Amino acid sequence: MKKSLSNIILSSPVLASSGIFVFFVLATLTLLPNHALAQDRSISISNNDQITRVRMVQEANAAGGSFPAMLTNPNSTSALAPELHPAFFAGEVALGNGWYYLQFVNGMPFGYYIYLVFMNDVNRIYHIDMGFEYFFDANDNNSGIYFYDFASNSFFYTSPSFPFPYLYDFSLNTVLYYFPDPNRPGHYTSNPRYFYNFATHQIITK
Description:
This protein has helices spanning 5-10, 18-31, 34-37, 50-64; strands at 77-78, 93-96, 99-103, 109-118, 121-127, 131-137, 145-149, 154-158, 166-169, 174-178, 194-197, 202-205. By secondary structure, the protein is α+β, with helices and mostly antiparallel strands.
């Protein structure tokens, strides 16, 4: 019998108890190599900083040139943000042309993304580095979110306090660390995406 998403989420060892959740957070902070823990504070967004906004919109649009054709077909999608955003996206900055940028209070960037309203479903985003993601609000006290990752066919859990870029991968049943791109401040690795797997203590791609 195939498990439903709700059954998978409710049986998750991360959410089974707050003690285990804290254990995973502390374990990830302790085990990850120091260079991977470095926070990227190179981009700071101000609502009044028009120069920064213009530069970021240009970068987002340049990356958007590689989108699949469905993203530019107005009959398939429209880049409109949903009226009610999950708490995970609190603090996001609208850059124009449908693009958003999110940096958490701790200074860690989530990055650039665009909402994709597809057949009246507002829970899809295209993240410049992660790719296509379908999100579910975790409705927890950590502003958590579940992502269905189309590139790996996996479900991830993360939150600003987990903290992202740490992800709990339900297919591997372990915590992953999504590596930033050292050559592009404010971005994460892509094509391929690199993760540190805490179960195997290896760097993997997904």
